[in-house]
Write a structure and sequence with these properties.
With about 90 residues, the chain is mostly helical. The protein has one domain (about 5-85). It is about 85% helix and about 0% strand. The chain has helices at about 5-35, 35-45, 50-90. Helix 1 (about 5-35) packs across helix 2, helix 1 packs antiparallel against helix 3 (about 50-90) and helix 2 (about 35-45) crosses helix 3. The radius of gyration is 19 Å and the shape is rod-shaped.
Length: about 90
């Protein structure tokens, strides 16, 4: 029962970094599509979709994956550092 609050903290941090990555990735995709819409028009196989929308969704998806992975990696490093710290105390 002692580790349960720690698990909630890990879940909250990874979720927060994934949401933050989604926001940044979506904003980057939106701005990139506004700056260079012809680039996205040329690379899209579907002609019925709007390039700004596709770039925003793809940027948000990539940002979610990268943000979640970064948060999970940060928690892994924190766990290793805590383990080394507790091994030195003993």
């Amino acid at each position: 029962m002692d580790r349960f609050p720690h698990a909630l903290r890990v879940i909250a941090i990874v979720t927060a970094t994934a949401i933050f990555g989604m926001i940044l990735g979506g904003a980057f995709g939106y701005v990139a599509a506004l700056v260079a819409p012809t680039f996205f028009e040329a690379t899209l196989p579907w002609k019925q979709v709007e390039p700004v929308g596709v770039a925003t969704v793809l940027g948000a998806f990539g940002g979610t994956l990268c943000g979640g992975a970064l948060g999970a990696f940060a928690m892994l490093l924190q766990t290793v550092a805590d383990g080394r710290r507790s091994a030195r105390k003993e």
